[in-house]
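SAMPLE LOG
Freezer: B-3
Tube label: C17
Construct: single chain, 64 aa
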Amino acid sequence: MKTSIEIDEALISNALQATGLTTQREVVEVALKLLIQIKQQEAIKALRGNLPWDGDLAAMRTNL
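STRUCTURE (predicted):
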């Protein structure tokens, strides 16, 4: 998909330097992938302590 957007030049310049990437397109794609990954991790972290589990942890630890 082709999309035209205006991005702060300093922001793109800093991102190019920080990542070593060579094109603005690469920077945008990497940034979007990282944003998605972070949001997915937040959703997984929100489940902590909220999922049911049946088992014997003590028995699992001795059955190595």
